[in-house]
Amino acid sequence: MIYVALLRGINVGGKNKIDMKLLKKTFERVGMNDVVTYINTGNIIFSNKDVSKVELSSILEEAISNDFGLQIKVLVRSIDDVSGVINAIPNTWKNDKEMSCDVIFLWDEIDDESVLENLVIKPNIDKVKYIPAAIIWSVEKKNITKSGKSKLIGTKVYKQATVRNVNTTRKIYELMQAQNS
Question: What is the CATH number assigned to the segment(s) 81-165?
């Protein structure tokens, strides 16, 4: 099975620095195969036939703790999970000069549509979709300061999620598909 490990809060603002080449070796050391990293924010595509998603998260969190001395949360999603996210993102939602669009990958503990009740969503500004495993949030950049998305940081939802922009999410899926062929 092809998976992506999404690490929360590494190499952001000079904190929790992890070299991707060393991280790749850590993944290989604990039995992950075909390991590929994508950009410096903790996106690791790999395959594994022997272990469940839940077990993979624990194994990887422990390996990162042992090798880097950091307590990093690791969210593991299968290629099918990411495919569901990709298929739910409207083609017109992009991350570019005019639009900011993010995928908020949710930890299992809060993965339910009711999570939207805990967010500040401005109906005339924010476009927000819940799908199993994620929230997709789009806002025009000219309205970003008025958006409820800026109020996400520090919330319970934010602490149990990891965010990637749609461009990164689409690239992760592309890399996963390349391994699947």
Answer: 3.30.70.1260
